[in-house]
């Protein structure tokens, strides 16, 4: 290898290690929050069916079409927070989020640590003169990946 190239590579290597040494060390940051999605929402919010039916009645009358949403929310100390409603019928989203925020939920673990819950809400408008129907179903239980 020519002497100039060897000298240039040596200087480059010194420059890189000096630049790395000059970088400030970063502090460790821990992110906390709900760690796993819970699907036992009916146990935490036992009156949710009646509450959602009452709170969504006006929106269903106004929109008048079937819809399905996957709903997630955090529960901390009895307060419902960070509600997300994912579904195609965007006309219902605001009403679904507001109705879920109004739920009365209690969970022993959520008193001290936020818990993330999820469920599926299906809205069926029913017959022309018949009542609207609601179906609340649990999401499939999360599966944990195993390394064998």
Provide the β-strand percentage band.
Answer: 15-25%
Distance between the termini: 49 Å
Indicate the structural class: alpha+beta
Contiguous runs where pLDDT drops below 50 for at least 5 residues: 143-148
Query: Order of SSEs, N→C?
Result: HEHHEEHEE
Number of strands: 5
Number of helices: 4
Keywords: Signal
Signal peptide: 1-21
Structural commentary:
By secondary structure, this protein is an alpha+beta fold. The chain has a domain at 42-138: TolA/TonB C-terminal domain (2-Layer Sandwich). Helices cover 35% and strands 24% of the residues. It contains 4 helices and 5 strands. Strands 1, 2, 3, 4 and 5 form a 5-stranded mixed sheet that branches. Helix 3 (48-63) runs antiparallel to helix 4 (90-101). It is globular. Residues 143-148 have low confidence and may be disordered.
Task: Tag the structure with descriptive keywords.
148 residues; alpha+beta; TolA/TonB C-terminal domain; 5-stranded mixed β-sheet; 24% strand; disordered C terminus; signal
Helix and strand topology:
Elements: H1 3-22, E1 37-38, H2 41-44, H3 48-63, E2 67-76, E3 79-86, H4 90-101, E4 115-124, E5 133-138
Parallel strand pairs: 1-4
Antiparallel strand pairs: 2-3, 2-4, 4-5
Helix pairs in contact: 3-4
């Amino acid at each position: 290898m020519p002497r100039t190239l060897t000298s240039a590579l040596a200087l480059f290597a010194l420059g890189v290690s000096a630049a790395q040494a000059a970088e400030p060390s970063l502090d460790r940051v821990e992110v906390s929050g709900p760690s796993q999605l819970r699907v036992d929402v009916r146990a935490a919010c036992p009156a949710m069916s009646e509450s959602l039916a009452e709170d969504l009645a006006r929106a269903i009358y106004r929109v008048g079409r079937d819809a399905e949403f996957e709903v997630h929310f955090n529960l901390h100390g009895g307060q419902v927070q960070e509600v997300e409603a994912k579904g195609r019928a965007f006309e219902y989203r605001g009403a679904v989020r507001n109705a879920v925020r109004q739920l009365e939920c209690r969970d022993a673990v959520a008193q001290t640590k936020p818990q993330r819950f999820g469920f599926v809400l299906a809205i069926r408008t029913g017959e022309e003169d018949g009542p609207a129907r609601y179906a609340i179903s649990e999401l499939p239980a999360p599966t944990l990946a195993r390394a064998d």
